[in-house]
Amino acid sequence: MNIDYSREYLMIQEAFLRKLLDRLPPIHYGVSGKTTIVRTYFHDRDGKRRRLQYKLDSEKGRKLVQLSQKREQTEKALNDVVYKLEKKNSCADIIQVREVIESSMNGEFFNKLHAQSNPKPIKKKYIHKGIDLRSRGEMMVAECLDLLGLPYKYEPALQLGDEVFYPDFIVYIEALDCCIIIEFLGMTDDYEYVMDLVGKIAKYARHDVFINRDLLLIAGTVDYMPSSDYIKGCIITLLNNLAATLVEVDA
Predict the structure, then answer these.
(1) What pLDDT was estimated at residue 94?
(2) Whole-number pLDDT of residue 236
(3) 250 to 95, 96, 215, 234: CA distances (angstroms)
(4) Which residue in 75, 71, 21, 30 sits closest to 52, CA to CA?
């Protein structure tokens, strides 16, 4: 299952990365005497160009190094997106691109979530990067999210109205400034499990959390586990669909 990001998603990602790059100042390295220094420039309120310069091993110097590394990573990601866009051939003309999805589950919401909040004991642990997961399927989802570079929180407490949910994953899509929920359903061959699941989905829907928009369901059984490629394909397909809602095209 080889599914790639759509042109629409790549365009939104490109716009996001360019804005991020504009906020990251260029960092320069040099030597003063025998001391390695790091510096950057900025314009003050009067429009005058100013310089900040610190020793490389100072606290502020290390912060500038971190900014330099982030800028380098952003430039690399942008170049990759631009390259992929150039390979996308389409006769459709883009009329308008909205930058983000209007959602209460945005970056601010994501930052306030506390991961691993579910009080239910874990019977058998599957450990991924120090996180205790409940199943091999959840571990595969976590691995796929890492490969796609998508930040997530495992089993955070999600307050919807007067109900509290503990979704398997809440994933932040930075380019769209919205979150999606991923639930891994590992026992869909069990009748009682499925009936409980139907009730949970209905509760989500009651709070305007809908399948294939806010909520991604990935299913398996006791004897069947979807492949990593399938899981990645499901995630990418949902992101492509979300991006399509932000881009108006004239075919």
Answers:
(1) 56
(2) 97
(3) 7, 10, 29, 27
(4) 30
How many Å apart are CA 218 and CA 210, to the nearest integer? 14
Q: Model confidence over 43-56: pLDDT tens digits?
A: 888 888 888 999 99
Q: Which of 56, 90, 124 represents a domain boundary (last residue)?
A: 90
Which tens digit of pLDDT belongs to each residue from 64-82? 999 999 999 999 999 999 9
pLDDT for 89 equals 66
Are the beta carbons of 133 and 126 closer than 8 angstroms?
yes
Q: What CATH number did the domain enclosing 242 receive?
A: 3.40.1350
Contact (CB, 8 A) for 53 and 39: yes
**231 contacts 150 by C-beta, under 8 angstroms:** no
Residue with tokens 């599914």: 3
Q: Return the closest-CA partner of residue 172 out of 150, 200, 148, 157.
A: 150
State the residue for tokens 């998603």.
9
Count CB neighbours of 161 within 10 A. 8
What type of residue sits at position 157? A
Q: What DSSP line would sit under 29-69, residue for residue?
A: EEEETTEEEEEEEEE-TTS-EEEEEEETTSHHHHHHHHHHH
CB 246 within 8 A of CB 176: yes
Query: Which range of residues forms the domain containing residue 238?
Result: 107-249
Scored b (16 or more CB within 10 A) or e, 121-140 reads: eeeeebebeebebbbebbbb
Q: Considering its fold, how many domains does the chain have in total?
A: 2
48 & 157 share domain: no
Q: What is the mean pLDDT of residues 200-210?
A: 95
Band of residue 96 on the pLDDT scale cut at 50, 70, 90: low
